[in-house]
Amino acid sequence: MVDSYVCVDIETSGIRSKWDKIIEIGAVKVVHGKTVDTFSELINPGVPLSPFITQLTGIDDSMVKDCEPIEVILPKFISFSEDYPLLGHNLAFDFAFLKQNAENLNYQFEKNGLDTLKISRKVHRELESRSLEYLCGYYGIADENHHRAFNDASVTSQLYLKLMEKFGESNPELFECSELKHKIKKLQPITDKQKKYLTDLCRYHKITMDFDLELLSRNEASKKIDKILAEKGRILY
Fold first, then answer.
1. What is the pLDDT of residue 67?
2. What 3-state DSSP class applies to 185?
3. CA-to-CA distance for 174 and 176, rounded, in angstroms?
4. Which of 13, 65, 77, 140 has the fewest Cβ atoms within 10 angstroms?
5. Rounded percentage of the chain residues whose pLDDT exceeds 90
6. d(CA 44, CA 24)
């Protein structure tokens, strides 16, 4: 059974690992069942956050505008995680974003991992829900800041220890790592032509560029250009 790991949770601007952005990473490093280090960073996504995401996470644009971008924060997290396996609740979601961003930034990020959601679905079929929030209530784990990355990583680590204590002997196979896999979707960077046209559009229509032009993909740039054209119109020379 695995008792050393990095338990990770992320908050994002949406659910699509190829297009949406990581806005927070929280993690707890556990060695032989004891917490030895922690990681908690907000991230400037370079795009405005939707009202839905702000309502869900409590994270708004003012909280991330002065934070470092993913290309600064992700290498720090990769270093923090060392060679430990990852642990998470619905870990496939978190790993998809981490792996996609690592690939975008040309970092290697091959990991094994364990998922408390998968374990819970096996051992708690009688429960009406296996959500992290529900399981924390079931096991009496204080979940005081739900949908913030560090809080969710911390309570997931506690949940894992509870599950291992209760079911580890009877179901040891559930507490072994497996290889984490995610099919990478390679992003195409914004073109020089798009950069110039988007810059010219914003200047012409007096639009504040509240995003980092250099971080946009070709698809994201196209969407922004189309939105401006639909709402404001073309440049009239």
1. 97
2. coil
3. 6
4. 140
5. 79
6. 9
The token duo for 130 is: 């296996």
Query: Which structural domains are found in the chain, ordered by start?
Result: 5-179 (3.30.420.10), 192-232 (no CATH)
Structure tokens at 56: 């869900």
**Rounded mean pLDDT of the chain?**
93
**DSSP track, 16-69:** -TTTS-EEEEEEEEEETTEEEEEEEEE---SSPPPHHHHHHH---HHHHTTSPP
pLDDT(60) > 80: yes
d(CA 4, CA 32): 5
Calculate helix-pair angle for 91-104, 70-81, nearest 10 degrees: 120
List the beta bridge partners of residue 87. 7, 114
Q: Amino acid identity of 181?
A: K
State the pLDDT at residue 214. 81
d(CA 8, CA 94): 8
112-115/86-88 β-pairing: parallel
> Looking at the DSSP assignment, which residues form a beta bridge with residue 11?
24
The b-or-e profile of 89-121 (16+ CB within 10 A means b, else e) is: bbbebbbbbbbbbbbbeeeebebebbbbbebbe
